[in-house]
Amino acid sequence: MKLTPFRATAIILLVIFGLTSCGSKKDDKSNADEFKQAEESLKDEIEDVVYNIPSPSEIPYMLQATGAEYNQSLLNDRKKAEGYLSRNDKAALNLGVYSADIGYLVSYDKTQDAINYMNSAKKLADNLGILGSFDADLMKRFEANIAKKDSLASMVNKAIHETEKYLKNDNRNKPAALILTGSFVEGLYISTGLIKTYPKNLLKDDDRNLILTPIIRVVLQQKESVNELVKMLGAVDQSAPVGELVTDLTALQSSYKALNIEEQIKNNRADLLLSDKNLTEITSIVEKIRKSIVE
Description:
Elements: H1 5-19, H2 25-52, H3 58-65, H4 81-84, H5 88-107, H6 111-127, H7 136-144, H8 149-169, H9 173-197, H10 205-220, H11 223-233, H12 242-258, H13 261-266, H14 270-275, H15 277-294
Helix pairs in contact: 1-2, 2-9, 2-11, 3-5, 3-9, 5-6, 5-8, 5-9, 8-9, 9-10, 9-11, 9-15, 11-12, 12-15
């Protein structure tokens, strides 16, 4: 795998530190400064991704705007939260997953379910030692604004942003990156799942394609977001589960590149996209990544 500048620097620094642990105080200070600089570089990369990939509620809102029907089966069971508490990486990834699920529920006015999912998200946030993002005040405000869809979505997005900010300021860049990853993967999983599970015999092909074209557009619009995610995770410590995620997301990148997206969308050929093996591959890879996160 090609090393990003951050990873190369980190590896070199670890080698230098190991060889010169008995060196001068000047060398120690230089090493500390280099590590600090690398840490700040990673914070910047995470910040870039925050602004370049969809917020937890964005993809669900896009899906709802297409007229796609709500599908409860595509959500991660909120009761599984207890099983994620023993591993910080699982807790971080699924905090992101649940935030996208909450966005999806809010988009379709499933407010009581959204509250239940908020409680599961709070458990994971508390387990990660994140202060203030999913506190009692947020829960009260969420319930008080139960009929205001935009306000609820804004609260979810803000809570996740505050979570990422807290972790970065606490020099915990890896969990911050994993939360972002979980949120994005879940949004993409719901999108591809809606396409895959749409009944094939309910409508004529032309009518079915007309309905699915907007959803396909939502999936295709995430091409650059996948690139941003790979870039960010490539700069994080590659211990499990990051290394595996990078491998799978790189494969997802390749499938996106192979799609003749612009030409087919321009000609409104959803029929070609639906039968394109690369869209099938995208769906399969997203399912694999999501399964590795939630199980």
